[in-house]
Amino acid sequence: MSFNINAVYAGDDQVELTHGLSGSRILTDLPPDNGGRGRTFSPTDLAAASVASCVLSIMAKVAERDGIKFEGAAFEIEKHMQESPRRIARLTGVITLPPGLDAKQRDKLLACVKACPVSRSLLPDIELEFSAV
Q1: What's the start-to-end Cα distance of the chain, in Å?
Q2: Cis peptide before 31 (omega within 30 of 0)
Q3: Nearest Cα to Cα of residue 46 among 91, 12, 11
Q4: Which strands, in side-by-side order, build the sheet including 25-29?
Q5: What CATH class is the domain 43-132?
Q6: How many other C-beta atoms lie within 10 A of the C-beta of residue 26?
Q7: Residues 59-87 pLDDT 10s
Q8: Which of 68, 49, 40 is CA-nearest to residue 119?
Q9: pTM for the model
Q10: Residue 55 burial by CB count (10 A; 0-12/13-18/19+): exposed, middle or buried?
């Protein structure tokens, strides 16, 4: 499946992204450490957010399929940049799973981390360090 995302420079270090299927819009800004004001997500913030969203979405589908209550699950992700060349060096984070899961359910949900097509699309030398509670 393919579709377009339209990106238009809006001025003042901001880019407006429009989702081709839904028309939803996101505005990005440069981060303060790269000369911007950090008023909203930066492009690399969106990369980190995409990993978290992808992992939780896959977990939710597995949970739904297996009758596991998934409400309240969360993923707090942190992006670590390197300077030369400027890029994402590492993503770390904590996945909070719903209470009451047995070991088999936890393992099944945590296996979804490796199934995320977003993280699988990143450079292999970007470190991914996630834990679960």
Answers
A1: 34
A2: no
A3: 91
A4: 5-11, 14-19, 25-29
A5: alpha beta
A6: 15
A7: 999 999 999 999 999 999 999 999 999 99
A8: 49
A9: 0.91
A10: buried
93-122: pLDDT as tens digits? 999 999 999 999 999 999 999 999 999 999
d(CA 30, CA 53): 21
Is residue 6 within 8 Å of 17, Cβ to Cβ? yes
Which residue shows structure tokens 């901001």?
14
Helix (H, G, I), strand (E, B), or coil: what is residue 31?
coil
Query: CB of 4 within 8 A of CB of 18?
Result: no
Break the chain into its structural domains and give their ranges. Answer: 5-34, 43-132
12 Rama sector, left if φ>0, alpha if ψ -120 to 50, beta otherwise:
left
